[in-house]
Amino acid sequence: MSHNTLSPHESQDRWQRVEFFLNVLNQICIGFVTIYISYLTLRTGLEGTSLHAWLVTIGFSFFMAEGVMIHYGGNVLTHSYKRHTKTTIHWIVLTLGGCCGASGALIKMIQKGFSLHSTHGKLGFTAFVLCILAMTSGLSALFSARVKRLITPLLNKTFHNFLGFACFVIALVTQYYGYQTGYFTNRSETDFQILMKCLTLTSLVLSSYGPMKALYQKCENISRQF
């Protein structure tokens, strides 16, 4: 046997360090996007489009991005917490994210008279609907033991995870197209627009690993029951 062969424990430790590094990188991306958009919107005054941009960024790009990663083992912020504590933080953070994100989207829809023709607008409306559905299914998942006669806890939580993850993906893609709107292009250089798009996509990809892994495991468990 080669002396360079790593034991399963050593291999796991190396992979965990990689996950921690990628998570730190993700936190930097999330922080940069959140801080800059907050600076931009607060500087121009929190009303109309500025309030919309700030709320959806805080709600989706910050709170929801952090919320979907709470149970992820590679999350440097919550790795040492017990599962019960992680679950509590998860509900609090995603409730804040959902309320902020949905409110921000609703403000713009009212401002536009619900006449949404752009890609950004259509995706934003989709994210709004998915956000409401995810928050509603979250209540069902929270009380899954009480409704288990109607739907098993595993199916209930899997459905909630799927809706929440779909909402997060659509929301960040909406944010990506938001950098092409007049509000942002009139206030930033082209190079900075590209930077913000790259940071948002990087955050989307790195934040998605944990939820996708958890969703895959739940789907495997469901398949074993049939």
Task: Tell me about this structure.
The radius of gyration is 19 Å and the shape is globular. The model has no long low-confidence stretch (mean pLDDT about 90). It starts with 7 loop residues before the first helix and ends with a helix. The longest helix has about 35 residues, at about 10-45. The chain has about 230 residues and is mostly helical. Helix content is about 75%, strand content about 0%. The protein is built from seven helices and no strands. One of its GO terms (molecular function) is metal ion binding. It is a multi-pass membrane protein.
* Broad structural category: mainly alpha
What is the CATH level 1 assignment?
A: Mainly Alpha
Content of β-strand? under 5%
Q: What is the CA-based Rg, rounded?
A: 19 Å
Q: Sketch the topology as an H/E string, one letter per element.
A: HHHHHHH
Percent in helix: over 70%
Our measurement of the CA-to-CA distance between the termini, rounded to an integer number of angstroms, reads 42 Å
Provide the residue-averaged pLDDT. 88
At the fold tier of CATH, the topology name is Four Helix Bundle (Hemerythrin (Met), subunit A)
How many strands, what sense, and barrel or not for the largest sheet?
none
What is the architecture at the second tier of CATH? Up-down Bundle
The tally of strands reads 0
What is the approximate shape? globular
Which spans have pLDDT < 50 for at least 5 consecutive residues? none
Number of helices: 7
Overall structural domain count: 1
